């Protein structure tokens, strides 16, 4: 699926939500976790599209879904979906009580209009 440095299964995620959205007071639709450094970013449907921005800034090509019950990986370098992959350090998703979109209290009422399609 990847080069030898694209996944580091020992690195935990950076937190329960998109680090960049949290820093800016924004919100996300779904979350992705960098399999190399643990950075949690928001998906391409989210207003910030921070997971893709992280790939472009760092060259870290592989993300894993950070949604409860999902264990697929995406490789930005090859545009390939992988139904499964390496087991990563826990936690494997954002907290189950955290809504999607999230986080609670920062999602606008008309959030669906802001999604990228």
UniProtKB/TrEMBL annotation:
Residues 85-117 are annotated as: Disordered. Residues 107-117 have a biased composition (Basic and acidic residues). GO terms for molecular function: zinc ion binding. InterPro entries: Znf_RING/FYVE/PHD, Znf_UBP. Residues 1-99 form the UBP-type domain. This is UBP-type domain-containing protein. The lineage of its organism: Bacteria, Bacillati, Actinomycetota, Actinomycetes, Kitasatosporales.
């Amino acid at each position: 699926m990847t080069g030898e440095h694209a996944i580091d299964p020992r690195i935990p995620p950076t937190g329960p939500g998109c680090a960049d959205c949290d820093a800016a007071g924004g919100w996300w639709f779904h979350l992705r976790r960098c399999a190399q450094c643990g950075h949690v970013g928001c998906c391409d449907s989210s207003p910030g599209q921070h997971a893709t921005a992280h790939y472009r800034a760092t060259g870290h090509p592989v993300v894993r879904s950070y949604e409860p019950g999902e264990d697929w990986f995406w490789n930005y370098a090859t545009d390939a979906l992988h139904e499964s992959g390496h087991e990563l350090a826990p936690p494997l998703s954002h907290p189950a009580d955290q809504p999607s979109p999230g986080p609670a209290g920062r999602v606008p009422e008309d959030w669906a209009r802001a999604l990228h399609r």
